Amino acid sequence: MAHNKPEDGAPRSRNENQPVSYPLIGRANSHVFLPGQTVKYGPVASVMQLWCSCGSGVVEVNATRFAVHPGMVVLMPWRHHVRYTADRAQAWHLSGLHVFPVCAPPPNIPLPLWEVPHDQHHPLADAPWLNDDPRQPIRTPFARELEPSHPLLELTRYVIRRFREPAISPATMRHAAELVLGEWRQLVMPSPPLPMPQPLRRITDRADDPASALLDLDQWAAIAGVSRATLARLARGHWQRGLMAYLRHRRLVRAADLLRSTRDPIGSIASCVGFTDPQHFSRAFRGEYGISPQDYRSQYGGL
Fold first, then answer.
1. In this model, does residue 4 exceed pLDDT 60?
2. Can you list the domains of the chain with their CATH numbers?
3. I want to staple 137 with a disulfide (CB 3.0 to 4.6 A). Which of 84, 132, 185, 239 is the partner?
């Protein structure tokens, strides 16, 4: 016999005094930090996913610091302490998902409940029916850069859209929480990477030579020893982006590393990673990281 469900959408066992437990999205929203703004919270009674869509800043989670720029996702464990510090150059656009790994409200607690305790003074900070689950994968702070088309970010955008609707379905947010936890598990404990195809190895052997920035797709195909179509298919299958986009991203990642770890002139760094025009380099860097190379160095030099 199927279980009856109350109007709030939360499943109950046959014995109404013994609630069913399930994961639940507690909150999903976007926020814009002003340039230079600093905010801190904790302990936060959720497992949180942070995603940066524009601008940059530093996120410190339980004393672990991450330099966060567009495309980065930061995952924070249950009851985390967090400090956000936006870059001084521009506004910082962040989106967040809060997941309760175990939500087991007693019958007298009305649902839906779209609140997340952000400090110990919140009425729900010590609610015994909101808990961590030892099986959930986020045990320590974790960060990764993801492509905009990554399934986790597609799911994030969907959940935020649903939270903006006048009526939020608890059943939808339970299902979404299960999907999010599954995506986190794949992110933190991925399958062993596939070996790089030999044609792509020939590409990476040359990719960090500054002169290689002048090569076009036909020349790269000749280096790889395959046709343009085959090279495009291999690159997209292995790197989830086109070859030229991958090479550009790789050069800018190297530039960011040099900006953080050296005091070399920015023009020299641009040349080192294959940019002959400093203004072109500055525009490309801003497009990748949301701020200029000089501002990036000022913010993250020494990290």
1. no
2. 22-188 (2.60.120.280), 198-300 (1.10.10.60)
3. 185
* The pLDDT value given to residue 106: 81
Q: For residues 253 and 251, what is the distance between their CA atoms, to the nearest angstrom?
A: 5
Residue 44's Cβ-count burial label (10 Å; 0-12, 13-18, 19+) is: buried
* CA 38 – CA 85 distance, rounded (Å): 4
CA distances from 9 to 98, 169, 174, 293 (A): 19, 7, 10, 50
Strands, sheet with 57-61, edge to edge from the N-terminal-most edge strand: 38-44, 80-86, 57-61, 64-68
CB atoms within 10 A of CB 189: 8
Alpha carbons 11 and 23: distance in angstroms, whole number: 12
Q: Residue 196 above 50 pLDDT?
A: yes
Q: Provide the pLDDT for residue 111.
A: 60
pTM: 0.62
Structure tokens at 111: 């649902």
Q: Which residues contact 157 (CB under 8 A, 6 or more apart)?
A: none
Secondary structure (H, E, C), 10-75: CCECCCCCCECCEEEEEEEEEEEECCCCEEEEEEECCEEEEEEEECCEEEEECCEEEEECCCEEEE
Residue range 172-195, pLDDT digits in tens: 899 999 999 999 998 988 767 678
